[in-house]
Design goal:
Helix Hairpins; four-stranded mixed beta sheet; K_chnl_volt-dep_Kv5/Kv9; disordered N terminus; mainly alpha; 20 helices; two-stranded antiparallel ribbon; 489 residues; disordered C terminus; Potassium Channel Kv1.1, Chain A; Four Helix Bundle (Hemerythrin (Met), subunit A)
């Protein structure tokens, strides 16, 4: 910036004609020179480039408030910004919209647009979608880091009961927090497996016993093991409910509903066995108990709580509803068409197995899905030809949507791994800065980090260690800092 009496910069020659539509400026962004004319820039007067046209009349203070450097001889403005992003942003002056090139970080591009004072409404919809996804990733990273910090932090003002609640919650919900928590998670996993195995083994006739009335029932030993497993599940659920920070959210969570469905049948059947006989017939009680015992299969879904792979599969299927809908639609159309054709072609045969079109649906389903039980099959030549075509169409109909579903699974799985690694990386950086004494992260900054995302946190804090290339750092007077251009590259 020019100081008083500085002879390096001659006086700025102000020409009033530069304010008209024929004004011309030269901009150098990261070594890339670009010439702009006033008639283009004045279409968007609130942008930084449009302000450069009128900044010369305000002197050097006005000039250096808009750019990093200025050459009066060449009338050239210098900016230490990303030239690749700048090439995309200037499209707004010529085409009225902006497209973000592949390979540019969306968050960096958003910051560049804010620097050049170009509204985000000019960004194309496809690029806005990419930007929204990146913002969601940053918010998720911020949430994970904040959760870890909350677990590590100890608030002296909290009561003993609150501290105990936090300890129990972390002990049961976060196996990675300590070695005893890992042991409890393994025990819970084993109890789920044992309970599922006991449920299956209890249906073997050789292992069942006959009561006084001649009815078969589970072996007492298996029944005792089942009772012990239910006791463990009940104790685990009650402890998690008591220690939960948000009990309403906990009760309405899908996995916790599964836990209730896995526990409740045992107590309901126990109640019906002891009290139901007085209120209804014994046969009705036994039927109700048998129906409730079937509901025990819900406990197998408890494995998803301890398996990240099953959780990933669940989320991937949620994101693949459109592809699954297309698969069902293809199969439904094929089943209807080929079952009707099969019924029509098989009517001429005296021993036809196709009695009606609804009955032919079963044949079409097992044929198009390549199962082929053989209980219903065509006997005429045309019927066999129809079966061959339906088989081929079924293979194609199933294969087409499978690839997008697999891509959704792989994308989500990789995304979760990246988010987990990014959260650990930021914690390591924060720990490194804290150890070296180069940064002081206050509680208010951490709250801003959790509310506004990772980007606002690092811009607000005074961390001096370079982060990942995804983020742009503020320019600093110290030479060892990375510049905006270096960060973008």
């Amino acid at each position: 910036i020019k100081m008083a009496g500085d002879s390096r910069f001659p006086d700025v020659d102000i020409d009033e004609t530069e304010k008209n539509e024929e004004a011309e400026i030269v901009v150098n962004v990261g070594g890339v020179r670009q010439v702009f004319y006033g008639d283009n820039l004045n279409q968007y007067p609130e942008t930084r480039l449009a302000e450069l046209i009128n900044c010369l009349s305000g002197g050097y203070d006005s000039i250096f408030s808009l750019c990093d450097d200025y050459d009066p001889g060449k009338r050239e403005f210098y900016f230490d910004r990303d030239p690749d992003a700048f090439k995309c942003i200037i499209d707004v002056y010529y085409f009225g919209e902006i497209h973000m090139k592949k390979g540019i970080c969306p968050i960096c591009f958003k910051n560049e647009m804010e620097f050049w004072k170009v509204d985000l409404k000019f960004l194309d919809d496809c690029c806005k979608t990419h930007l929204s996804e990146k913002k969601e990733e940053l918010e998720e990273i911020a949430r994970r880091v904040q959760l870890i910090l909350d677990d590590l932090g100890v608030d002296a003002s909290e009561s003993r009961w609150k501290k105990c609640q936090k300890y129990i919650w972390k002990f049961l919900e976060k196996p990675e927090s300590s070695y005893p928590a890992r042991v409890i998670a393994v025990l819970s996993f084993l109890f789920i497996l044992i309970s599922s195995v006991v449920m299956c083994v209890g249906t073997i006739p050789d292992l069942q016993v006959v009561d006084a009335e001649g009815n078969r029932m589970e072996h007492p030993t298996l029944d005792s093991i089942e009772t012990a497993c239910i006791g463990w599940f009940t104790m685990e659920y009650m402890l998690r409910l008591i220690s939960s920070p948000n009990k309403l959210h906990f009760a309405l969570s899908f996995m916790n509903i599964v836990d209730v469905l896995a526990i409740l049948p045992f107590y309901v059947s126990l109640t019906l066995t002891h009290l139901g006989a007085k209120l209804m017939e014994l046969s009705n009680v036994q039927q109700a108990v048998q129906a409730l015992r079937i509901m025990r299969i819900a406990r197998i879904f408890k494995l998803a709580r301890h398996s990240s792979g099953l959780q990933t599969l669940t989320y991937a299927l949620k994101r693949s509803f459109k592809e699954l809908g297309l698969l069902l639609m293809y199969l439904a159309v094929g089943i209807f068409v080929f079952s009707a054709l099969g019924y029509t072609m098989e009517q001429s045969h005296p021993e036809t197995l196709f009695k009606s079109i609804p009955q032919s649906f079963w044949w079409a389903i097992i044929t198009m899905t390549t199962v082929g039980y053989g209980d219903i099959y065509p006997k005429t030549t045309l019927g066999k030809l129809n079966a061959a075509i339906s088989f081929l169409c079924g293979v194609i109909a199933i294969a087409l949507p499978i690839h997008p579903i697999i891509n959704n699974f792989v994308r989500y799985y990789n995304k979760q791994r990246v988010l987990e690694t990014a959260a650990k990386h930021e914690l390591e950086l924060m720990e490194l800065n804290s150890a070296e004494g180069k940064a002081s992260t206050s509680k208010s900054e951490l709250e801003d980090f959790a509310r506004g995302g990772k980007e606002s946190f690092f811009h607000g804090s005074r961390l001096k260690v370079s982060h990942s290339d995804t983020f742009i750092h503020l320019l600093s007077d110290e030479k060892h800092y990375r510049t905006r251009l270096q960060s973008c590259k």
